[in-house]
Fold these 2 entries.
Entry 1:
Amino acid sequence: MKRTLPVALLLLAAPSARAQSAPPAPIQDNSFLIEEAYNQESGVVQHISAVSLTRGGRSWEYGFTQEWPLFGRRHQASFTLPFQNAGGASGGGVGVGDVALHYRYQLAGAAGGPLAVAPRLSVLLPTGDAARGRGAGGAAVQVNLPVSLTLSAGVVAHTNAGATLTPAARDADGNEARTTGVNLGQSLVWLVHPKANLLLEAAWTREEEVTGPGERAAASSLLLSPGVRFAIDFPSGLQVVPGVAVPIGIGPSRGERGVFLYLSLEHPYSRAGR
């Protein structure tokens, strides 16, 4: 079974906590399918919930991600806890998927500026049940390179390129093989208002599945996803960002439809670095 992570898995960063007297600042992160290259600021933690529903409700995924800065904005640690209903022929039911542990390094953009780069290294733990379609059956290593570029005062672009290696993946019958996956993504964010943005994201993946002892087969997916997000700031420093998107399958994924629901809660936990 191919390993899936709620991408918006997978894998986001956070805006800063702002004083009440500061002017409104744009929503800097909180994309859905594409990872942005902005690490957490010191003293700020982010809690992200993401739900992906397929047309007809035959399967769904829920992911909870929590992000923490490490010794400032340059380093960031996070984890993703997924729950899945595999549905389909596997009839796997509801359960925990493969938990992911992430580390990101702010290579460029820690001090601001139009360009941000933050490579990520993740370890995916085989906590899901591969026999029920909820995991890859083995531990994996994943790398991703997100690049964010401010094109103008109202438009920001985000680019992703990454790969996943599972040395000993397993299928539902227990067959084992090494599998790989690659991902590419691009998004444009239109800052209609500092607190209300429109997004257009495109995400392509090519993943291998185990088909027999030492055997594997590859399948590709291509999604185009329009969405919207907005922010609500509270005097306490809490920022709530809800969002919704409608992923549409094109090319090899033609005919697929879904709904993506997003909710971020971000707040200061310390005055350090503020």
Entry 2:
Amino acid sequence: MHDDKFFIPNHITINGGKTLRDNAAVSISGAKNEVLGSMAAAVLTDRPVVLHNVPHISDVLDMGHIMNDLGVDIRHDPKTRVLWIHAEKISSNILSDAAYKFRASYYIWGALMARFAATGEFDRLVIKVPGGCSFGGKRAIDYHLDLMRNIFGARIKTADTTMELILPKRLPENKSPLYSTRKMSHGATFHWMLAAATSPQTKMIYNASMEPEVPHLLGELNKMGANLRGTGTTGIMSTGRGGLLNGANIEIMPDRLETASYALLAMGLRDKIKLNGTDAESCRPWLNSVIEIAGKNSVSVSPDGESMSFDFSNMCEFHGQKFLMSPIPGKETDLHQIWAPVLSSAITASEIYDPIWPGRHGHLPELAKFGLDSSFEILKIKNSVAKNALNIEIRPSLLRPAIVSGMDLRGTFGLIVAAAMANGQSDIESPSFALRGYPEMIQNLQNIGINVIQTSDGQFIKPLPQITR
């Protein structure tokens, strides 16, 4: 941060092999995997929406600038973690180039199309094909385009890197109210809820994601006046309402993946840490794995579940693990890149199977520079929804300092964990990937005792307009 601008350094240096500071603690922020959907929900109403516990990350700023370019009045106070959004009128139907930078910008597609269908402000939306973490090639957007056709009867016109989503002159007959994805998808489920929330017709999604952020956003949309049913299930229904929603105050839930990341950092260092402002119940899958390895006495949860203390200082040697990453309530695919350096300290080899994102292996060549011994293969799966699965073997390794480059959000934090575990100075280029999802990451690492320095060369992201007192 510099002059209220969000600073992204070109690289960071970590002097690893150190213990954490006594009473090391991190305050967990709002969930990255919820906040962008909640921001998009604000265009479903022409009244103010106030978001609380908003993480100060580059994705929030980028999404805010995209919405501002559409004519949305959006104001931010990063100190109090409040975002005020008023989409009284949409003045443009063209998404700015910033939408190309990150994948979750597609949430605004369905929300804007729903709004245009209700208000008639425009009859089409011009979009950029989004980027984001690729995991071995550009991730398909077919789920989201199918959703546009299913809910709105939209016609899609393609030209180079842009597409036009064109509304029909009248809503088609509701012959196919059911939408489904081949595999569970957090993004597609979020997008469906945003697109269907104002439909006058009954709409249904089958094979919906059950990640904790989904029922949380569902509840917030209902608070705004939507009629969504199916909390915590794989089937969600919008029973039809028509028209725009109401304004609301929305509380972003704590980030379970940020919580896991700092806990696994302490586990890799065999040290202690306290994580405040979290939600223990949403952390259950990865937390169970931590307890299985380190023992139940390694974790202490406050009665309200909003803080957790971890003590790995007396952790015994452990054998390698076998992890099958699967949709929630299974083990989180997002975290196996952060587990990797921790598992390298086991006394026998570990195996990780991931049929969700078989391309999620770009971190392995970078971790190899630390001396992490691993190999992977892509397994073909017959007669299954998942066509391929990633199979990683991680063998016992003694980590050493290295010069590495970030490649995606969680993989880059995995490199930070490895650098903290290695005894000596490591350099991580392109830490921007991690700053997409870890608010105040450099400051948090320094506060808990990680010797990390960011370079003065980098880039600044323009702040959003400030909330006036």
